[in-house]
Amino acid sequence: MPKALITGITGQDGSYMAEFLLSKGYEVYGLYRRSSGDYQFNNIQHIIGRMKLVCADLTDAFSLDKAIASIKPDEIYNLAAQSQVRVSFDQPYLTKEINWIGVERLLDSIKNHVPKAKLYQASTSEMFGAVLMSPQNEETPFNPVSPYAYAKVKAHEAVKRERQKGLFACGGILFNHESPRRGLEFVTRKFTDGIARIKLGLPQRETGKKYLELGNLNARRDWGYAGDYVEAMWLMLQHSTPEDYVIATGENHSVREFVEFAALAAGIKVNWKGEGVDEKGYDQEGNLIVCINPAHFRPAEVNELLGDSSKAKKVLGWKPTTSFEDLVKLMVESDIKKLSSALS
């Protein structure tokens, strides 16, 4: 039975990866950070008895090294990160410590204890930043514009360096991927939770207002379903040679479109009025449901990302199976169900 270690097991990607590997017959170990509450296990509560959890941290070399030495995994999926771009501007050194230096620590532990293990590193489309060409593929130059993206580039380069020395290490350059398990601190869950609250007549979680406050409505992203993307991660480690791959849907949508599809999934039609920061969205009864708050703009905005995953399709045989519309609908329906259950 192959043995896999997942860092960031409690997050969105970690939970889907754990499910996937268990379905493949793996012995699964998950690394989690110490926390003051049990809420962090919500995403894996349904499978927690089928795997082994280990408390360790990418910022602590001792605990990380001890975990690698004791588990001796065949495959390692590094999905742990400070994963919020906006937060990285406020906490740049913590972001670097986790997303870059933490990966260097992990690489050292692998070389010391399991040099034949296969490593998947979660890289990101944010590394392309202020894009120099579109769509973006494995040959597109990186041009990071946030501390998050910069740290991810350095980690990606470290993985490539060790691969050139003989380590089986792959970098998955994943474009935005979402699901009902996305944390409420992420913007897409803010959209779907917010629309669900409007549908149910509830105040917004952060502001207590009856309408959503958003930032750049025109930013465009290539959004896919996290449940599809973990298969691509696994396929990378099953291939005969380690390489880097872009994983994306090949189509992008604006924040505006995301909100519109989310509203439609809840039976609401958004009517836009005004321009720029004064633009507002109203429902069919004329009630305000969306407005712009400049405080939500990033200090350095990435206006458009669009991925070309031709290599993954050709080499790995991977392709996404969930449409943008179905993804948004899945998230909205999940949030309506969660909020309705809390009310009953």
As an assembly, this protein is single chain
Q: What proportion of the residues is helical, as a percent range?
A: 25-40%
The rounded Rg comes to 20 Å
| Main β sheet profile | 7 strands, parallel
**Count of discrete alpha- or pi-helical segments spanning 4 or more residues:** 10
* Helix and strand pattern: EHEEHEHHEHEEHEEEHEEHEEEHH
Strand content: 15-25%
Structure classification? alpha/beta
The mean pLDDT is 95
CA(first)-CA(last) distance: 44 Å
Give the CA-based shape.
globular
Biggest sheet strand order reads 3-2-1-4-5-6-11
Low-confidence stretches: none
Number of strand elements = 15
Brief account:
The protein is an alpha/beta fold. 39% of the residues lie in helices and 17% in strands.
Secondary-structure blueprint of this entry?
Elements: E1 3-7, H1 12-23, E2 27-32, E3 52-55, H2 61-71, E4 75-78, H3 85-90, H4 92-113, E5 118-124, H5 147-164, E6 168-174, E7 177-178, H6 187-200, E8 212-214, E9 220-221, E10 224-225, H7 226-238, E11 245-247, E12 253-254, H8 255-265, E13 271-273, E14 280-282, E15 288-292, H9 310-316, H10 324-343
Helix pairs in contact: 1-7, 2-4, 4-5, 6-8, 6-10, 8-10
